[in-house]
Structure formats: structure tokens, C-alpha cells
Design a protein that fits this description.
Keywords: Carbohydrate metabolism, Glycosidase, Hydrolase. The protein is of the alpha+beta class. The protein contains 19 helices and 13 strands. The strands form five sheets. It has a four-stranded antiparallel beta sheet with strand order 8-9-10-11. Mean pLDDT is about 85; it is low at about 1-95 and about 560-569. The site of alpha-D-glucopyranose has 6 residues, from helix 4. Alpha-D-glucopyranose binds near residues 145, 146, 280 and 282.
């Protein structure tokens, strides 16, 4: 046997060091993640589609749930039941008197319409199925990041095959030789997207992948590899099928991604250095350096890889590197990216020109560079991970995806996670407004917009990536709400989405300070808006789904947030 086998038990939360993987974790205190492991393991030997749903959230006794969740349950309204599968098993509506929301059936239909087949097999979902739009642009492709909510919806609905096909197809694409002009890209790079070409005459299908070479601005899809690993864990956790992750090709795929992001360079920080536009925000938006979205996904992917890697000779070497990096990364993020009222006040009073061994102001941030808006925005209660930290530069903007993933991956401590939810509540109008959720806050305008975006006409203030509102983020905030025991916040956000999304034709994004207007150039029937809604609904109805996309805190990683202590110690 190649070392210790990764088992489902090894996936029970925490950053399991090598020795812990495979050990059964028996505890009388049942956390939500342990509970869903329990639920899932019970389901393993049965075909999931025909399974009657486990007790719904409101039917469970509070004692079955973690204290955090129970806190949120006090305000939790009775659940309505969209059902595991509207098309296949509309069973859940019989369990209580609440009919599924009419949008759910429409969403499933639209999601199925977006399926892309390769040689007869479904391998992904198209980014947007917008017939009314004249320009297809590249929205007829399967984007790796866009497929994640689709994949989760299919997994939650007991349809894992498409997810498996997608993981294997993208793995094959990773193996392609990738060149841009005369430059050969790293072996581990995963594509941003791929397209299936059907030749009706020859009756053949071919695939073309985009690794950034045809993307606007040739941006590097750094997030793709991370999402791929996160999805592999979600698939494994949901199905209990270890054979896919243990397959030598998947192990190699993971190692190739990890080689790219764990390689040593000239850097002095454990965070990952990136160019602009390397993630969901795939245009120039001043997020070069160490953007929160990538750091949070990096952290989560490392934690997922830790439980998926086999303990063979090659795997062990990576496991050691991951464990070291995770410790440094979590320390760095929790200490230097975290901002709350106290921290802001400290930075405001910073001295400059200190040498680093004794410096309190480690990055020599000049207090005058703190933007005015942040003083008003910062509530007394609440906090968040800021957008970016590098020498003399703190990007104070709020980014939704990075903060939600920080909660789900437990990069945020439980206190920080609660504080992020507090901030969302306190700044509801700014961050949620009339359509969840702002991709970032605030928008950049005028001269700053000219300089930072290069006068990008798509990213004008409060539009698209520049303060636009993206319905896809609903699933992430819902997951974060459930994890922090605040489902009532998710309920509020879903209500807002339900009042508009179907009527407006599932737009890609909304514009305006409150997110009231359908985005200037937004696609309609955007698949991840549709899938994101379904995932949010299914998770709220049955929170045991959360385990697929959430990791419990690792108790070994002590949060040390004393700014005066050196981060090297
Ligand atoms: C836009 C978004 C990107 C998304 C793509 C396909 O380029 O910025 O995040 O993956 O559209 O929907």
C-alpha cells in the first residue's frame, strides 16, 4: 500500500497532519461538519437520486446541531422545500406544506439547457445561454470557475457523473502543452475555459481550451487550478467515491498545480503573488499583488489537497510543504489582511520609516494613504479581510468572494468569521442593497478609475467588476451564513434575489450603488447566476450540504493577532 490511504474520516475538518489522515475521529460533540459526514456516509451505499432526503433543517432537534448553528436557528423561518431534484424527484414538497418556489423549476430547466456534451457525455455547463444577445463573445464556453456552482448543484441533487466527467476532461487539458507566442506555460496550469466544437458532417467533437492566450488581456487563470482541487474534494466528500481522487492521474494533476503555487521565488511573504485579472475579476482592476480572492482560494485548495493527496513518496513531500505554507499563510492573512475598527485606528496612528525587526508598521504603510471612505464604512462591530497587502500598499476595498471563501475554508478564525457577518449586516445597504452581492466595495471613480482600470468602459463605477452586484455570489454568502450560524441573513438575501432574478432573465450582474439596474452589458441566462441560486436554496433547506464546500477550523493553527510580534517568529 502507498502509505496511509485517504479515507472519508481523513476529511473530517482540520488541517490534518500526515499522521491524522485515516484516523477515525470519534467525539461526543457533534459539529455541523461531522454531522454531515455522518449523513453522507450513511448514503454511500445507496443511489442518491432516489433517497428520501434526510430530515430537513427545521425538523432536526437543536441538540443535533452545533451551538453556532443553533444561534441562527432561533431566527430561522420555517423551511420551504425546493427538493433534491425538481425534475427527477419532486418528493420534498410532500414532506411539508410549502411548495417549492416557482423559480426553482425554471432554474433547473435552465441549468440543464446549459449542459455541454462531448462525445455524448455531459462535461460542463456553458457560461451563458443568451439567445437574445447578438454577440456570444466567449460566453459559449465552459469556464472552470463558472462550473463550480453548477457542479455543486448537481452533486447536491445526487448527479455526480457530470462533475466527474468535468474533472477528468479538464485534467486532460492540463496535460496539453500550452504556449503563448514563444513562451511555454507551466505544466500545471488549468484552463480558464474550454469549448466543445461539434462537426455535424463528420460527426466528431473536438475541444479547444483557453489558458489565457485568447482572453482579453491574456490574463492568467490562477483560480482555475484551485477551484479544480476544491471541486475534487467536494465530489469526493459528497459521493464517498475515493477512487477518482486516488487515481494516479488526479494525484499527478494536483501535484502539478501545487508545484506551481508552492515553488520558491524571491518573495518575502507566504501569500501568492499574482498579476491583475487572474481570477473572477478577469480584467485590470488594481488587484495585482496579493489579492484576497486568490489568497483565500489558495488556502482552501491547500487544505483540500492535504486530505486528498496520497501518502506515497511524492505525496508526502507535498504534504510537508503544504503544512508549512498553511501555517505561515494563515498567520500572515489573519494578522495583516484583517481590518476592524481597532486595527484601522492602529493603522491610522502608525509611525513610518521603521526597520522591520522592530517595526509595528511592518509594510511601511503611510497613514495618509488610507482612503476617506473606509473611516465611515468601518462599523464599531464587524471586520473583514482587506483586498491586498504589499509594501506601502493596503487596498482597503471589500471583496465578497475572498471573504466568503475565508469563512468557508476557516482561514478566518471563528471570531473573524462572525465579524465578517456582522459587517454584512451592519453595511447591508452598501454590500447587498437590492441584489446580493457586491463583488467589491466601493467602486473606483474618476481619475482613480482612469489610472487603475486603464479607462475600462466596462468597469465604470458601480458596474461589472467595479462595484457591480453578482447573483452568483449568493451561494457563497449563503454557505458562509450557514457556517456562522446566521441563516436568517441568507434568507434575506435569497428573498431579494427571488424578487428579481427570474423576472429579469437571470442576469450576470446588476449595476448601481444598490444593484437595482440590470448590468449595462450583462448577459442574460447566465448559468452561474442560475446555479448559484439553486445551490443557495438547497443548502438552506438541507445544511448538511455545507460540508462539501466548507472546512472546519484547524485547532493547531492558533490565531496570533498581535501586530507587535514579528511574523517570522
Ligand atoms: C466574465 C467574468 C468571469 C467569468 C466569465 C464567464 O469574464 O469576469 O469571472 O468567468 O465572464 O462567465
Amino acid at each position: 500500500m502507498d502509505g496511509v490511504k485517504v479515507t472519508l474520516d481523513g476529511m473530517r475538518g482540520g488541517i490534518e497532519g500526515p499522521k491524522e489522515v485515516g484516523l477515525k475521529n470519534v467525539s461526543s460533540h457533534c459539529s455541523i461538519s461531522e454531522m454531515d459526514d455522518y449523513d453522507l456516509s450513511k448514503l454511500l451505499d445507496k443511489p442518491r437520486l432516489n433517497i428520501k432526503r434526510e430530515k430537513s433543517f427545521d425538523e432536526r432537534s437543536l441538540s443535533e446541531l452545533s451551538i453556532g448553528l443553533a444561534r441562527g436557528l432561533e431566527n430561522y423561518e420555517s423551511s420551504y422545500s425546493p427538493g433534491r431534484s425538481v425534475l427527477d424527484t419532486p418528493a420534498s414538497s410532500a414532506r411539508n406544506s410549502f411548495e417549492p418556489h416557482p423559480m426553482v423549476a425554471d432554474a433547473w430547466e435552465a441549468l440543464r439547457r446549459s449542459l455541454v456534451h462531448f462525445r455524448g457525455q455531459p462535461v460542463g455547463t456553458i457560461a451563458a445561454y443568451d439567445h437574445a444577445s447578438e454577440e456570444v463573445l466567449n460566453y459559449d464556453q465552459v469556464f472552470v470557475r463558472d462550473f463550480v456552482p453548477s457542479a455543486l448543484a448537481f452533486l447536491m441533487n445526487g448527479e455526480p457523473d457530470i462533475v466527474k466527467n468535468f474533472l477528468l476532461k479538464t485534467l486532460q487539458l492540463q496535460g496539453w502543452e500550452k504556449r503563448i507566442d514563444r513562451f511555454k506555460l507551466g505544466e500545471g496550469v488549468m484552463p480558464a475555459s474550454f469549448k466543445v466544437l461539434h462537426d455535424p458532417v463528420r460527426k466528431t467533437d473536438t475541444i479547444i481550451a483557453d489558458f489565457g492566450e485568447t482572453a482579453i488581456g491574456r490574463v492568467a487563470p490562477v483560480d482555475s487550478g484551485f477551484w479544480w482541487i476544491i471541486l475534487l474534494r467536494a465530489y469526493t466528500k459528497s459521493t464517498g467515491d475515493l477512487s477518482l481522487a486516488e487515481n494516479p492521474e488526479c494525484q499527478k494533476g494536483m501535484r502539478l498545480i501545487l508545484s506551481l503555487c508552492l515553488s520558491e521565488g524571491f518573495d518575502t511573504f507566504p501569500t501568492l503573488l499574482c498579476a491583475d485579472g487572474c481570477s473572477m475579476i478577469d480584467r485590470r482592476m488594481g488587484i495585482y499583488g496579493y489579492p484576497i480572492e486568490i489568497q483565500a482560494l489558495f488556502f482552501m485548495a491547500l487544505r483540500c489537497a492535504l486530505v486528498l493527496l496520497k501518502h506515497d513518496t511524492e505525496g508526502k513531500e507535498f504534504i510537508e510543504r503544504i503544512v508549512k505554507r498553511l501555517h505561515a499563510l494563515s498567520y500572515h492573512m489573519r494578522s495583516y489582511f484583517w481590518l476592524d475598527f481597532q486595527q484601522l485606528n492602529d493603522i491610522y496612528r502608525y509611525k513610518t520609516e521603521e526597520y522591520s525587526h522592530t517595526a509595528v508598521n511592518k509594510f511601511n504603510v503611510i497613514p495618509d494613504s488610507i482612503p476617506e471612505w473606509v473611516f465611515d464604512f468601518m462599523p464599531t462591530r464587524g471586520g473583514y479581510f482587506i483586498g491586498n497587502v504589499s509594501p506601502a500598499r493596503m487596498d482597503f476595498r471589500w471583496f465578497a468572494l475572498g471573504n466568503c471563501i475565508a469563512i468557508l475554508s476557516s482561514l478566518a478564525t471563528p471570531e473573524q468569521s462572525s465579524a465578517i457577518m456582522d459587517l454584512i449586516e451592519e453595511r447591508w445597504e452598501e454590500l447587498v442593497g437590492e441584489m446580493p452581492l457586491k463583488i467589491c466595495y466601493p467602486a473606483i471613480e474618476s481619475h482613480e478609475w482612469q489610472i487603475v482600470t486603464g479607462c475600462d468602459p466596462k468597469n465604470t463605477r458601480w458596474s461589472y467588476h467595479n462595484g457591480g452586484s453578482w447573483p452568483v455570489l449568493l451561494w457563497m454568502v449563503t454557505a458562509a451564513c450557514i457556517k456562522t450560524g446566521r441563516p436568517q441573513i441568507a434568507r434575506r438575501a435569497i428573498d431579494l434575489a427571488e424578487s428579481r432574478l427570474l423576472k429579469d432573465g437571470w442576469p450576470e450582474y446588476y449595476d448601481g450603488k444598490l444593484g437595482r439596474y440590470i448590468g449595462k452589458q450583462a448577459r442574460k441566462h447566465q448559468t452561474w447566476s442560475i446555479a448559484g441560486y439553486l445551490v443557495a436554496k438547497m443548502m438552506l433547506e438541507d445544511p448538511s450540504h455545507l460540508g462539501m464546500i466548507s472546512l472546519e477550523e484547524d485547532k493547531q493553527m492558533k490565531p496570533v493577532i498581535k501586530r507587535s510580534s514579528s511574523w517570522t517568529c
